Amino acid sequence: MELMREAVESLVRLVKAEIHPNAMLVASDDLFEVTKSPSLVLQGPTVSEDYDRRSPASTVTKHQNGLTCEERRHPRLYHLDFDVILTTSTEGELLDLTETVARFYQVHPTLTVGMHGTLNLTELIPLGGLKRVNLSNLRQASGRCRIEDCPVYDGRSITAPLVAEVLLQTNP
Asked: Which of 30, 26, 49, 58 is closest to 39 using CA atoms?
């Protein structure tokens, strides 16, 4: 179960569908060059654990049709942060795409991750809020977004049968 990878891929697919079809994902410490304008780059993720929500408890899932249950440790929850970098040729085009991205966060406060449900998608720093070095003739704006509390399980579980019938015997 590679939920972290699936969450990142879901975000990239959604950004390509809703904001810009040529959006791309770049590793957080990789150098990259924008070859086409306009472009949208998601740089990341930078991963950090949500320590406040760490739990030593176990979770139990019942499978009624198979009459079994599965017990496993509670997952650790990680935040996945992305720098969002817009590059355009003109200021007007930059403002239009900035508005499109702002609208994107309003329309999609959660990210659907396959069969696993939804994760919160949060704008941490609006576009234009991050300073960055621009060594080109192009116009750029940067911001930051976060996929919150992506669960990562330890991969170990115990499967046991459910109690199908309870027989009580009374003493005569």
From this structure: 26
Our measurement of the distance from residue 156's CA atom to the centroid of its chain's CA atoms, rounded to an integer in Å, reads: 23
Check pLDDT > 70 for residue 110: yes
For tokens 């176990």, the residue is: 58
CATH of the domain at 133: 3.30.2000.10
Residue 122 β-bridge partners: 146
What is the H or E stretch that residue 101 is in?
helix 91-107
pLDDT in tens, 37-85: 899 999 999 999 999 999 999 988 888 888 899 999 999 999 999 999 9
Q: What is the pLDDT of residue 30?
A: 87
Q: Does residue 164 fall inside a structural domain?
A: no
* Total structural domains within the chain: 1
